Automatic annotation (TrEMBL):
Residue numbers spanned by region Disordered: 1-31, 65-89
Protein name: DUF3072 domain-containing protein
Polar residues bias spans: 1-12
Organism encoding this protein: Streptomyces solincola
Cited InterPro entries: DUF3072
Length: 89
């Protein structure tokens, strides 16, 4: 950790494959589960019990892609598929 890298992440690969995560088999985190509950509710899906961090991350990615608010199914005006910054008609 240093002044230019306060989180100590320099040299780490942010796109590391989920299968390579050291903590992927640990239980899903609170923030993961909270976000998953929101996405699953919007998608009309139920969450499986006892998700691992890796499973939760994969499910978040899948549900985000299907969400009209955050994924490819929604507004794709160069803003990552979300609606932020879009003016209402």
């Amino acid at each position: 950790m240093n002044a230019t890298d306060p989180q100590g992440t320099q040299g780490q690969d942010p796109d590391k494959k989920i299968d390579d995560w050291v903590t992927g088999d640990e239980p899903a985190t609170g923030p993961q589960l909270s976000y998953l509950h929101t996405l699953a509710r919007e998608a009309g899906e139920e969450l499986p019990a006892d998700l691992t961090k890796a499973q939760a991350s994969q499910m978040i990615d899948r549900l985000k892609q299907a969400s009209p608010r955050t994924g490819d199914a929604g507004y794709a005006g160069g803003l990552g598929g979300g609606t932020a910054g879009r003016a209402d008609p």
